[in-house]
Amino acid sequence: MDTIASLFSFITTPVSWVIVQFHSVYGHIFGPDTGWAWGLSIVSLVILIRICLIPLFVKQIKATRAMQTLQPEMKKIQERYKNDKQRQSEEMMKLYKESGTNPLSSCLPILAQSPFFFALYHVLNGIATGSTIGVINDSLLASARKAHIFGAPLAAKFTDGQSKVEALGASLTDVRVVTAIMIVMMSASQFYTQRQLMTKNVDTTVKTPFMQQQKMLMYVFPVMFAVFGINFPVGVLVYWLTTNVWTMGQQMYVIRNNPTPGSKAQAAYLERLHKHVTHHGKTRSRREKGIVKAIVAKGRDRNEFERKFINGLTKAGLVAQADGSVVKSDSAVVVETEDGTTTTAPAAPKRQQPKRQSKSQRQSAVTAGGAEPKTSLTKAGDPEDAKPSGAKPATAGGGKPGAGTRSKAQSGQRKGPQRPKSPSKK
């Protein structure tokens, strides 16, 4: 413990000062010697630390997304150089450098809050041993030793003996029941956080070793919390339970509003976005425009859920634009370019098919115009001047009969019997 104290002495004083400031506020409400005052001071410390770590959490999300994108390439490198570990490591580092990713970025929030965790652990251990630390003087130390959370002292552990627990003014049963419940809640919250990450926010179209590692961590982390939790003081359990609940809520918000492409969470998000856009007929916020713009820019690289979203807009009479806006397609049609992007163009006029005339209409046209119009019903092998015997040819404008047929006899033969040709004279 002296080694830990020396390593984290630079942060032990600030942590103790923050706890004392929160305690002075809650002490006026619940009383300075109550477990509520000291317990809420620890909870407030966690919230303050996690708010300061939000920028690192954003970097963690981006790093995790980038690592998921690189999984297929990483798998190819592992298969190509499976017998040469050194070359495999070199190619991995080259891939990270080209893509601008860092595997350690996903661990930044945990690494950043580790000093605060060990500093708080050292402060609570000082309270348990009755030694002042940081800005906690003798009066504050006596007040903290009197504080109980549901009957368990703030500095008590699950592994403490009967004599040590009685020295803190509590019973061994109360301490073990409270610490056991808190350890179970801490492990369950960690398991649920990792499970919702695996079941909702992982690209199901790509099967990579990264998914197997995450699945393994889903079971390993809760066991680790359960094993180490029995050696944590009650105040540290409050700290760790609070940070797990914060992480769980923060991740639920991210999964709902910024899901991983190709995951079940993205399918649910795009379904909600489709209902919202079709209801209002447009994208109303900058965030919605950014999502639609990213989907349109993917072109033919869209996944199943993104194609379903675009097709749903088309069926609803809407078209997604390259700038993320959505317009009605009443007077426009969707045009897909060579790169897969979609634009709008004026709709071409509809071609009207000519109406088919009835037999009476065709006969009236013949009598009015003097000639029967050619239709598709006329057979190619029928002679045009074939008429029933005794029928008179139609005339136009009172012309002589046969005038209309004179132009038809252009095939080299005349009507009636043919005159025999005279023999040639030599």
Please provide a written account of the structure.
With 426 residues, the protein is mostly helical. The protein has 16 helices and six strands. It has a two-stranded antiparallel sheet with strand order 1-2.
Descriptive terms for the model:
426 residues, mainly alpha, two-stranded antiparallel ribbon, 16 helices, elongated
Secondary-structure element string: HHHHHHHEEHHHHHHHEEEEHH
Report the major sheet.
2 strands, antiparallel
Strand content: under 5%
What spatial order of strands do you see in the largest sheet? 1-2
Helix content: 55-70%
Architecture blueprint of SSEs:
Layout: H1 2-7, H2 9-30, H3 35-52, H4 54-80, H5 85-99, H6 108-129, H7 138-146, E1 148-149, E2 152-153, H8 162-167, H9 172-200, H10 209-229, H11 234-257, H12 264-280, H13 286-298, H14 304-315, E3 318-320, E4 326-328, E5 332-336, E6 342-346, H15 359-369, H16 403-406
Antiparallel strand pairs: 1-2, 3-4, 5-6
Helix pairs in contact: 2-3, 2-6, 3-11, 4-5, 6-11, 9-10, 9-11, 12-14
What does this entry show, briefly?
This protein is mainly α and 426 residues long. The chain is built from 16 helices and six strands. 24% of the residues are buried.
